[in-house]
């Protein structure tokens, strides 16, 4: 009995020491003095190599830098692909992911999201003659989108008939060639495509009502409440002092080719009224 008691007496302090030594993600970031921020390796205007400096530049790169400064640490950018962006967070290779990341049910089960700093919208592009119609007018109609995207999901959500293609250019061409009555994409891409089509003599318009809402936030590993709280408070401070607006206007704002107006402020995801996509 004495031997068993002695063994427990030795093991218990060791177990407690190991438990206390396991720091949370925020403590790790603070102790190393560096934030590992994953961004796209080549998706302009969010993050792509600058032609002159060959360094990554873009809206998400600037947001990473601003977040690191707000948290009082240095920045380490970690380039990643669209396909690997969730895995780089779920496996802990990066601390945060800023990659125009929209909240969906599936992603919400894989990683945790910060409060959104803007809300992207899936929008329906149509020929100018249909500009004054509502989404209800396109129910059961053929609408094109890129295969496997949230754009495709939104067509189903609104009762349309998806006609999908491997890339956005082909889906957009289906609208131009009247193989579909509409084409779904996010607002930013849609604005750019409408402008490009006009140069080719094709007048398109965007239906005012969104097909779906997609809150854009910062991704982090699940079960890291301290990091989540720090990122959320940092985002709120960056919103209040105009940092996010400045970065937004520089890359996708009204005076850029994307002509995007930032309408929503940083707010809890739970405060938004939207139907999450899968």
Structure in words:
The chain is an alpha/beta fold and 278 residues long. It folds into 2 domains: 24-119 and 215-271, D-Maltodextrin-Binding Protein, domain 2 (3-Layer(aba) Sandwich); 121-212, 3-Layer(aba) Sandwich (D-Maltodextrin-Binding Protein, domain 2), CATH 3.40.190.10. 39% of the residues lie in helices and 23% in strands. The chain has helices at residues 2-21, 25-32, 59-71, 85-90, 105-110, 150-157, 168-176, 187-199, 225-240, 243-251, and strands at 34-40, 48-49, 56-57, 74-80, 96-102, 112-113, 118-127, 142-146, 161-165, 182-186, 204-206, 212-220. Strands 1, 4, 5, 6, 7, 8, 9, 10, 11 and 12 form a 10-stranded mixed beta sheet that branches. Helix 3 packs antiparallel against helix 10.
**Structural class of the helices, strands and pairings?**
alpha/beta
What is the correct CATH architecture of the largest domain? Answer: 3-Layer(aba) Sandwich
The biggest beta sheet reads: 10 strands, mixed
How many separate domains?
2
Order of helices and strands: HHEEEHEHEHEEEHEHEHEEHH
Looking at CATH, the homologous superfamily of the largest domain is: Periplasmic binding protein-like II
Percent of sequence in beta strands: 15-25%
Overall form: globular
Low-confidence stretches: 1-21
